[in-house]
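Thread: Newbie trying to understand structure tokens

Hi all, I'm a second-year student working on a class project, and my supervisor (Dr. K.) asked me to get a predicted structure for one chain before our next meeting. I've only ever worked with sequences, so writing a 3D structure as a token string is new to me. If someone could post the tokens and maybe explain what I'm looking at, I'd be very grateful. Here's the chain:
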Amino acid sequence: MTKLPFYARWTIILLGIILVGYLMVVAKFILIPFFWSVFLALLLAPPVQWLERHRFPSGLAIALVMIVATVVMGFVFYIISSQIVSLVSELPSITRQLELWYHEVRTAVETYLGIPYEQQRAELLKSLSSYLEQGLNTVGNTLSYTAKTVTMLGIMPVYVFLLLYYQQSFAEFVRQLYQHRQPDQALELLSKAGTVVQGYLHGLLMVTLLVGLMAFGVFVALGVKYALVFALFVALFNLIPYVGVFVASTVSILYVFLTTDSLWYPFLTFALLWGIQLVENNIITPYVVGSKIKLNPLVVVLTVFAGAAIWGVSGMVLFIPMVGALKVLLDEKEGTHAYGYLLGAKR
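---
Reply by user tm_fold:
Sure, no problem. This is what the structure looks like when written as tokens:
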């Protein structure tokens, strides 16, 4: 068989990447809930396998694990939602504080920059009208996205159940597909990639819980109301590398600034949240997650932005373990070690 020239091979590879990216954008309504379901199935697989080893039928084991997981998540959601309702009820007082701060800023601008108060108001109204027009144009899209999100959340439990129920069938499919080309080696490779991603997801879940507990302790120590809500906010946004930490910290510090009379509280909030990030990045994540998926920072940043462009927030979270699984495959497959090395962190 004639070997293709270098430029022809790379042309085919680039066209394949473009085609895959296009399909991921077009079919994201199907792919996003499916990949979330794959990762949830990987998280739930160990307790399901434990029950199956203790002579539980496969369907019953999966149903029990999914029911327990749903009850736990529902309980957490109930507690958080009740605090969010209370927080929303206090928005008028926060808004008044914002108005006072806004007027103080405008007075300072007039005093020190010489821009008349009324001129500031005219420019602000002009800007606000532009943003309002854009916002009204996106209301319909937001409602459409909400309906799609509800549909995706509704189908995910079905995906998770079926993925867990037919996991042995997938293994048999791979064995038959590669029956003439070392099927055991192909199964071992896929199993290794799945194990790596599974370990990464379990580690990430543990890191999220620890960050949430530390943030909760910080907010309680500072006397911040609705500490549980902001701790959960910080923990969840910590899943989004680089960007999430900045967003969560900014919102938390702004709330503390608007609800306290001293600048020391926002400063302490910033310092303590920054301290949590240092502990998480240098101690918790290396110890809990370890080197299960070790991508270099440039690849992580590019992956996050690519995920955001293709699948939005879901892509920012999902693409990291997906690229990590790709790295495992590249590391193990003969002839692609260099590409796996390029994705990996410096040793």
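A couple of things are worth pointing out once you decode it. Residues 135-144 have pLDDT under 50 and may be disordered. Residues 293-347 form one domain. Feel free to ask follow-ups in this thread.
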